[in-house]
Every structure is written in structure tokens, then in C-alpha cells.
Amino acid sequence: MQVLKFGGSSVADAAAIELLISIVSEKLSQDRLVVVISAMKGVTDKLLEISTKAATHNEVYKILLKELETYHLDTARKLLPIHEQSATLSVVKQKFNELEGLLEGVYLLNEISARTQDTLVSYGEVLSSLLVAAKFSFLPIASKLLDPKQIILTNSNFTNAAVNFNATYQHSSDAVADSDTKLFIVPGFIAANELGQTTTLGRGGSDYTAALFAAAVKASALEIWTDVSGMMTADPRIASHAKPIEYISYQEAMELSHFGAKVIYPPTILPVMLAGIPVRIKNTFDQTAKGTLIENESAPSPDFIRGISSISQIALLSLEGNGMVGIPGFSKRLFETLATAQINVILITQSSSEHSICVGIKEADAAVAKSLIDATFATEIINGYLDPLAVETGLSVVAVVGENMKSHPGVSGKMFGTFGSNGINVRAIAQGSSEKNITAVLSERDVKKAVNVLHETFFETTYKQLNVFIAGVGNVGGKLVAQIAQQFNYLQENLRLQIHIVGLANSKQFLIQEEGIDLTNWKESLANAPLHGLDAYVQAIREKNLRNSVFVDVTANKDVAMVYASLLEKSIAVVACNKIACSSDYASYVKLKSLARLYNTSFLFETNVGAGLPVIGTLNDLLRSGDQITKIEAVLSGTLNFVFNNYDGTKPFADVVRQAQIEGYTEPDPRLDLGGTDVMRKIMILARESGKVIEMDDIANEYFLPMSCFEGSVEDFYNEMLVQEVHFKNLYDAAAAVNCKLKFVASYENGKAKVGLQHIAPTSEFYHLYGKDNLVLFYSVRYPDQPLVVKGAGAGAEVTASGIFADLIRTARV
Fold first, then answer.
1. Active-site position among 436, 682, 741, 743
2. Cα–Cα distance for residue pair 667/679, rounded to 1 Å
3. DSSP 680-708
4. What is the model's pTM?
5. Most CB atoms within 10 A, among 346, 437, 457, 485?
6. Is the separation of the CB atoms in 544 and 468 below 8 Å?
7. With helix as H, strand as E and coil as C, how does 110-152 read?
């Protein structure tokens, strides 16, 4: 004999019941069956809502009850032959008349007891079983609808009754002893106590009913049919990449179900485990899927972690005080108090100093627990031996489960390292000596991120996903988006990295899509997004709290640079093309770097110096390997190099500068480049990265622009350069007279930094520097005479975007 249980989604409507009929009919050709039926999907919740409204004197319950009656009657009409419907419709109507009478009593009393509530919600299973039995009655199958109240005996703990196993097994076995009947239909969830009163086995109790029957009749197998293809490695509503678990042991299934896995009700495992009955979880709507097989020992698998589960709405109770140290009995009194109030303890942890005991319970029980425990320890609290019970709410439990964890060292380290790198703070930890699970208590707002990063760490070894938010989608930002789109497949195949752009923002609006923005039409999507400013964008990024988040600043905006700290504090990596943050006051620069270390994330800004050139990376590699920088000489402005490489006095200096701006080599205000401010920032960043405490005021700037060029608008600047053309021609002629070129050079030596226009002789490294190229010379203890040279294009949207892209990839390797 086999036992099959069908969940609410499997009897949700006439079409689902027809699938059930076909599954059962096929199996009946091989064996006798007990089929356990849940209430139709959503009906139990609806009955609870109706009973609550009746108990609060809200007459809306009558409307809701009528809707529920209509739903069941309509299902019967669709399910049964039209000429055979009347008897079933009459019984359904009779059941709703009974419900109406019960609810009228609840309405008049203005209250509802647990016993009455059990009776009311039991009608969900009674009605669905009635419909299924009616359908089978018209098929050539000897079937029988059983009354669960005559079978499952419990105590009087209404709504979550405990089973009397021996009596239940005997009654259940006797009920299906009729050898002429091939099919027994049983309403799940419902039971009766010793007095014959209706009780229920708790939400999900139909699974338990099926397991009890399976154990009682020594079934060859128990199948649980639902709307998912087995137990999953994580809740698919939280982790989109969750996958079915093909094999799992009883113990692992019990651990996962206890910690929130909804596919199977926790008490279900015990009866079948004791009887050694295999359990298969199958999908009614995808019968070809293998599902999950639960048995004594799961088959070998490369995944030594079986699954990740979570429970929300948890409260943490902490009993602390020096008066506990070395004094026996505190734990006993604490747990007796909770047990007397029937408050279930989900996890326990205690410090080795015996200074504190911490337990996790359901948040709904927290207020009662505090009142009772404070009363239990009132004397110790008054005398100062103990602190009043501390209660922390808004928490969740996340558990990593797997029997084979004990043979794989480092699981805890990997788990908590993953939390740390994503800014997830752990409030408490529990691990049993059997090492079947590791449990962490954390903020409820971090659950989605926690489950996803753990799933990625333990199950998605193929790919790591970065969730990228970009600020600034102009010339450089647009090129960056195009490069990411172009390289997506390459990174996935060669680096096992998926870069999903989930946020885009310009100065007026932003667009966020957690599943990833379609990069084929992102401009149109962003243009149609609501108008929102920077603060709303940053707040949304923080609230989304996505795993492996990276904020990319492709602006030159001071306000954007000011938000880095708030993002780093959430362990959101920052990649900055914007130089303002790193060239602001030294204290701010140090703070950002410290925040990145403190919150175990990245703050990368390679493109602050040299666009796509590996200037800062090379400098950091020298320092990390133990070298010391003695001197830096550099041409750091692609703009200025372009300008002086193209100016020979034959056309106005202003025209050359305008050409540089048109080709995208200058800042929006070219005076930042030509005035030396941009180069000052760059050499200061290099000096700071070398270990020097330095501010902008410490850098000498030998201006070559007349001061009049700094007045007025950008257009005024161009007009003034035309006026000053003789000045620029004289600069060129003076250099040419001594066979030199003009280069704007930055230097750092002996703790001093300066920038300025210099005559460069043919023997200099800088002489043969063409176009928009940059050149950096690092002199160090290891490179005292012949410097380490970094040379290449130092301006342009493509190379700058590629430098940002490289930093973005580096964040995935931290």
C-alpha cells in the first residue's frame, strides 16, 4: 500500500483535481492507495479570516462565507457530470449551512475559542475531500471517504494537537483493513481528541496525517504532491537560483523543515523515519520532474550543504548578569518559565563564562515571555544579580543544513566570511554537536541578501553575480554600459562572473530593476523613469540591500562623491571615476579607505589617475611587496598633452583646446585641466597612496594661464584665450628656441609635490609623448635609477570606461 498526499494547490480548482485523479488512477493499477487531501488553496486562511471577523462583530464575514460557498459549488459543477451534480451540491450546501450556524454563534458571543476555531477550519479539508471523493465515485474504482475524527487521536491542545501514536496507528490500520477497497480518501489536518472533539494538527498538518497513515499501514512509500518540484536548496521566492534537491536524508529534511522550509511540515518526518518509509515530494503540475527523495541516507553529492532555510519574525531573549556565574539552576528556571507558557524555543546559545543565556522565540511571544521571565527572576533583578530580560525583535534565523558538514572543515568560516563581506551582522550563533546545521540570527531586513549570498557561496559555484548601480550615463557612462553588455558572455564563461546592471541614474532620474536592466534599450527605459534625485537613488540602493552590490560613480559631481560613506557602511563597494572624494581633505580620504576595510568591501578609483592606465594599481603593488617610493614624475593630463602636442602657433591656442573638448578629452569646464587643478588632484592622490599626508594647499602650481582666463563662463574663457594668443605663442616659441617641447609635468619628491609647464629636452622620457598619452615614472628603492614606467592613453571615453570596468571586476575578487 502507498500513501499519497495532495496539497492545497493540487486541489485548488477543477483542473487541478483532474490532474490529481489522473495521478491516482495510474498508481491504482499497481497498488492500493490512501490519498490524503488538503483544503483547497487559500481556504484555510479564508476560514480563519471569516472566523476572526465574526468574532469581532464584523458582518463582512457573511459576504466572505458566501463567496467561499460559491467557489466550492462552482468547482463541483465543473468537476462532475451535469446529471450527477445534485447530490454533491446538496452536501456542500449542507456543510456551509453548518458553518453558517457556527459562525452566527461566534458572532453573537463576540469571541472564539481555540476549540471552535479548530472546528471551523476543519471544514476546508472536509469540503475538498468531499469533492475529490465525489469525482472518484463516478469512476470504476472501489473507493471510500474516511472520517479523520475516527482515526487520529490527540490531546486537547487545540490548533496544534499532539498525537497519541499507538492508538492512532491502530485506528488507522483498522480503517483501511477492508481488502475490497482499493482507494481510501482521507481529509488531512483534522483529528479528534479522546472526547471526540475536533482538533487540528497545525498548519501543514495534512503532511502529518499522511505520515501517520504511512507508518500505521507500513506503506511502501509516501508521496507528497505539491506545486514545486521537491525540496529546494533555498526558498525560490527569496533566491531565484534555488534548485531542487534530488536526495536528502530524514535528518536533513527535518532540519530544513524546522527552519522554515515550507514544502514539508516538520512533524511529518518522525513517523516515516521510525518506520523507514521513503518519502517522495512531487510536483502535480510537472509530473516528469524527479522531485526529492527523503530516506535514511541521502545519496552522495558534491553539495555537502543540502539547503539553506530561514524563519522570520524572531525575537532574541538575553538573560545576563554576574549573578549567574557558577550558580546552578538559572537555565532550568528560564526554560521552565517558557515551557509553562507553552512558548517554543527555536535556538539556544550560552556564553562560556555563564554570564548570559540567549534564546530565540517567535516574536509574537516576546511580550509575554519578558513579563513572565522578569517575574521569575524578580528577586535577582531587584538585588542587581541579573539585568532585566533584554528583548530584541525584528530578527530572523538563517540556517545552513547538511549532514556532511562535519567532514568538511571551514563551513562556518565560509558562511560567516560571506556574511562579513556583504555587511550582514550576526546577532547570535548556534550549532549542534551533530554538526547538521549552523544557525545564525540576523536582522530581518538582511534575510534576502543572506540567503542569496549563502546560496551563491555553497551552490552556485559556476557564477558570482555582481549587482551594479551606475551614477552618470553620459559619454563615459554610456561606453561603460556598452562594454559590460559586450563582455557579459565572456566574463560568465571565463571568469565565472555575471555583471548585472540593476541601477542607472542621471542628474534627474534613476531606474532600478532587481532582475537586471535590459541593456538593449536602457536609454529609453531611463528616460521614462520617474523624476528622482540622488538621495532617493542612494536610499533605494541601501534599502534593496542586494548581495555583491557595487556603486559606480561616473560623474565629476561633488554631491555624488559625498554619498560614498553611506554606501560603504552598508558594505556596498564603490568604484569612482570621480576624483573629488580622493582629492578632498585628507581626513575624508582616510575615512573612506577605513570604511572599506571596516566593512570588508572595496573602494577603488584607478581611473582617478591616468584613465584606463594601471597607475594606482602598479603603485599599490610596489608598496604591498615592500618597496618604497622615492620620487614620482608624470605627465598626468591627457588633455594638456593633447593640447601642447597639437599647438604650434599656426592656429589659435583656443581652437586647439576646443578641439580637445569636442573629442571628449577635457572636463566640462576645461579650466580644471588647463589651470592644473586636475593634475594637482592626481599627483596628490598618488602621493597619498604612497603614504604621504598631503592637502591641495601643499602642492605648488606654476600657472601658465593668465588669471583673466579664470573669470566668467566657459565661453568667456575661450574668448579670453583668443585675446591672450600672444602669451601662448610666446610660451611655444621659447621652448622651440631651445629645441624643447612644452609638457605639463607633475612631480613628487621628498614629501613635496608640484605641477607646472616645463621645457622638455629630447633626452627626456616625456619628449616622445604623443597625442593624449600619459606617462608616469616611479622611482623607488628597487627602481632607483631606471624608473618603472607606465605609459599609454590617459584620456578618452573608451579607455576611461575600460578602467572603471577593470575596477568593477576587481571588486568581485575581494
1. 682
2. 12
3. HHHHHHHHHHTT----GGGEEEE--S-GG
4. 0.70
5. 437
6. no
7. CCCCHHHHHHHHHHHHHHHHHHHHHHHHCCCCCEEECCHHHCC
Residue 730: its pLDDT value, please? 96
* Residue 470 contacts residue 505 (beta carbons within 8 Å): yes
Determine which of 141-145, 520-524, 627-631 has the lowest per-residue pLDDT on average: 141-145
- Summarised one tens digit per residue, pLDDT across range 255-265 is 887 665 667 88
> Would you call 46 a catalytic residue per the annotation?
no
d(CA 69, CA 227): 24
d(CA 543, CA 530): 18
CA distance 342 to 336: 10
Q: Check if the beta carbon of residue 748 is closer than 8 Å to that of residue 690.
A: yes
As given in the structure block, the three cell numbers for residue 337 are 518559565
* Count, residues in the chain: 814
Task: Report how far residue 775's alpha carbon sits from residue 634's, in angstroms, rounded to the nearest whole number.
Answer: 6
Residues 6+ apart with CB under 8 A from 576: 552, 553, 561, 564, 582, 603, 604, 605, 607, 608
Helices and strands counted in the chain (H then E): 28, 29
Whole-number pLDDT of residue 235? 84
C-alpha cell at 400: 545552513
Q: How far apart are CA 686 and CA 96, in angstroms?
A: 80
- The answer to whether 242 touches 455, Cβ cutoff 8 Å, is yes
d(CA 23, CA 9): 15
Pick from 737, 742, 787, 747: which is nearest to 766 by CA? 742
Which residues 6+ apart lie within 8 Å of 41 measured at CB?
A: 8, 9, 11, 12
Distances (CA, A) of 17 to 8, 132, 408, 749: 10, 7, 45, 82
Complete domains list, the chain, with CATH:
2-227 (3.40.1160.10), 307-458 (3.30.2130.10), 464-608 (3.40.50.720), 615-794 (3.30.360.10)
Give residue for cell 551552490: 459
- φ/ψ of 348, rounded to 5, equals -135, 140
